[in-house]
């Protein structure tokens, strides 16, 4: 069961304004781009080496979760973060692709142009 500080909003309550406000910060946008590979990522690791303090990263993870972009899965002492990709794609079609595309080129690990979870290549 999630603690209150791990709670995320129902996808029906997520607004475009909340999502865009959350990803307006460059570090939070980079977190979303990293999570776009569809895999859960531990909250600790070199993939989060953005040159900020751990407490600052905690703030960014919380902001993304409260905006409805991510979910945190707690298993014992391990916390992993994952993008709510399927839910967000259904609510805001094309938004995650737009956020993970740089100058018209998909970022590595995004659905378009890379294998999805079923092994098929994106169109």
Name the CATH homologous superfamily: Winged helix-like DNA-binding domain superfamily/Winged helix DNA-binding domain
Q: What portion of residues belong to β-strands?
A: 5-15%
Largest sheet: 3 strands, antiparallel
**Rg from C-alpha positions?**
14 Å
Mean pLDDT score: 82
Please indicate the count of domains: 1
- Derived from helix and strand composition plus strand pairing, the structural class reads alpha+beta
| Known CATH architecture | Orthogonal Bundle
Strand order of the largest sheet: 1-3-2
CATH class value: Mainly Alpha
Total E-strand runs: 5
Q: What ranges have pLDDT less than 50 throughout 5 or more consecutive residues?
A: 109-123
Protein name: ArsR/SmtB family transcription factor
Describe, in short, the structure shown:
InterPro entries: ArsR-like_HTH, HTH_ArsR_DNA-bd_dom, WH-like_DNA-bd_sf, WH_DNA-bd_sf. This protein is of the alpha+beta class and 123 residues long. It has helices at 16-23, 26-35, 54-66, 85-91, 95-99, and strands at residues 41-42, 70-75, 78-83, 101-102, 105-106.
């Amino acid at each position: 069961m999630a603690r209150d500080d791990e709670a995320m909003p129902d996808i029906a309550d997520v607004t475009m304004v909340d999502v865009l406000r959350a990803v307006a910060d460059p570090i939070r946008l980079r977190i979303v781009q990293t999570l776009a590979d569809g895999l859960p990522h531990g909250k600790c690791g070199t993939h989060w080496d953005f040159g900020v303090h751990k407490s600052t990263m905690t703030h960014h993870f919380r902001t993304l979760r409260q905006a409805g972009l991510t979910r945190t899965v707690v298993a014992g002492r391990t916390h992993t973060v994952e993008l709510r990709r399927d839910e967000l794609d259904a609510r805001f079609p094309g938004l995650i692709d737009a956020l993970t595309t740089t100058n018209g080129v998909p970022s590595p690990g995004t659905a378009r142009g890379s294998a999805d979870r079923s092994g098929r290549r994106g169109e």
